[in-house]
Design goal:
Layout lengths: L16 E4 H6 L1 H9 L4 E5 L2 E6 L2 H29 L2 H12 L2 H13 L8 H11 L1
Parallel strand pairs: 1-2
Antiparallel strand pairs: 2-3
């Protein structure tokens, strides 16, 4: 969490209203109106932000976004696991483990010279070409 009140912004990018905790107790109605209208209120104690008051809609949007990021990452991970458990991936791993250091080095140089990244399978094919050549 940001310690500086200037780092706290609402979903529209506006800097939050900053209120000391002691003042927040006395001005809660006003602060609720600010939050309900889409603003954010940073509540400080001893000069550090201790809490942020948001509308229920803003909180829901933030919570949904976190869930969707986690869901997206989970799907990507599961898809990668499925791809890694195919017969082709198994053969590629076996070819990789059976390759000599010279074959691996040649494959790396060949892939780098073609501008290829670390795409799965690129090294295997290059290692076979090096071994055959």
């Amino acid at each position: 969490m940001a310690d500086s009140p200037q780092q706290i912004r609402d979903l529209r990018g506006r800097i939050a209203e900053v209120v000391r905790a002691t003042d927040a107790k006395n001005e809660m109605g006003k602060l609720l109106e600010i939050a309900a209208s889409g603003g954010a209120v940073a509540i400080t104690r001893y000069g550090r932000v201790r809490a942020v008051l948001l509308s229920a809609d803003q909180y829901g949007a933030m919570a949904k976004n976190e869930d969707s990021d986690l869901d997206r990452l989970t799907r990507e991970f599961n898809q990668r696991v499925v791809r890694m458990n195919t017969p082709g991936a198994r053969r590629a791993a076996e070819a990789l483990l059976e390759s000599t250091p010279q074959e691996l080095g040649g494959a790396a140089v060949s892939a780098a010279s073609r501008g290829r990244g670390t795409r799965a399978g690129a090294g295997r094919n290059s290692a076979r070409r090096v071994a055959a050549g």
